[in-house]
Amino acid sequence: MTIGWGKVEQAISLAVAGLATGSMPAPIERDAVRDDALRKLAAVAGERGWSMPVLRDVAGPQADLLFPGGAVEMVEAWSDLCDREMVAAMLETTEPRLSQRVRQALLLRLPVDQAMRAGARTGFATLATPCARGALRRSLMRTINAIWQAAQDDSSGMTYVTKRLTLGAVYGTTLLYWLARGQNEAALAAFIDRRLAGVLRLGKLRARFSGRRPVARAAAV
Question: What are the residue boundaries of the COQ9 C-terminal domain, all occurrences included (predicted)?
């Protein structure tokens, strides 16, 4: 089943809006064989789509046994793989500011790579179908949590929840921008900077109305 891009955009927006009502999804099965098959499939998925025949063609005749859940499981697992690669790439960061670590993580998660963007577009179209059963929201929740993990945030309690909801809105708009016009890294970085600056202004405004002095950490999304 294929759906139009407008429906995909709407599905992503609705999934982001629904993040507050969901609990953290269970971890996805991970192993090196699945990861290797996903990388091979993702390299061609933009042109050929996410399907069992394409998976068998690029990763071997038995590769379909790795993903009994079909295309939805493949895309969800690929998103998880991208999350893990982002976290690994951030391990050596020396950036002292939390907001800038979030910025770095966003740019790593949404790179200027035509094949990845094309694969993501067809992948989100798969996750946006009714048969996906919440896979889109689960993938977004894992990614947002992974970005905070990559940024080395150690918040807890309500601050933990609030930060993830705030980042959800930032990531949702940035994701849609990246999918549509993410071929220019400077433009994408400027877009992210505007989104993060908006969060900072909102934090200062809330602090002013509540009579509290804004805290630098809170301003970092």
Answer: 138-202
